[in-house]
Design a protein that fits this description.
It contains three helices and no strands. The chain has 131 residues and is mainly alpha-helical. It has one domain. The longest helix has 38 residues.
Length: 131
């Protein structure tokens, strides 16, 4: 009968583990991209006479301009991502759901801005070429 030896296993390594990049890196990348797009679109909407729908962001814009909106967005994203990271260690499914909810919320904000800009563009084109 053949005996199996475990001598072939390499010894455990003492190398440092690679740095952790977050529990949900793909979600975080999309949330960040959508947040930047939201800031750009909101700036365009404000420059065309539109207004911010989010009351907290509107207050920040009224008191500190676009930089206030950027600060609110950055603070909110930081808090949400920290919550996701905490939950990833204790309740991974809940952490993933929060990350997905952040994606949905930022997608909705971008969609609303794009709809406004499309309507504004249509009105401008209509007045420009239909007079």
């Amino acid at each position: 009968m053949t005996q199996i030896s475990l001598d072939y296993l390499p010894p455990p390594t003492t190398e440092a583990r690679p740095p952790r990049r977050g529990a949900y890196p793909r979600h975080y990348a999309w949330v960040l991209a959508l947040a930047v797009l939201d800031i750009i679109i909101t700036t365009l909407v404000l420059s065309t006479g539109g207004r911010e729908l989010n009351a907290v962001a509107r207050w920040a814009i009224e008191h500190a301009g676009v930089l206030g909106m950027v600060a609110i967005k950055a603070s909110t994203l930081t808090i949400v991502l920290l919550i996701c990271e905490y939950l990833a260690r204790h309740r991974p499914r809940a952490g993933l759901k929060i990350a997905e909810l952040a994606l949905i919320a930022n997608s909705a904000a971008v969609a609303c801005g794009l709809i406004y800009l499309a309507q504004f563009s249509f009105i401008v084109l209509h007045w420009t070429y239909m007079r």
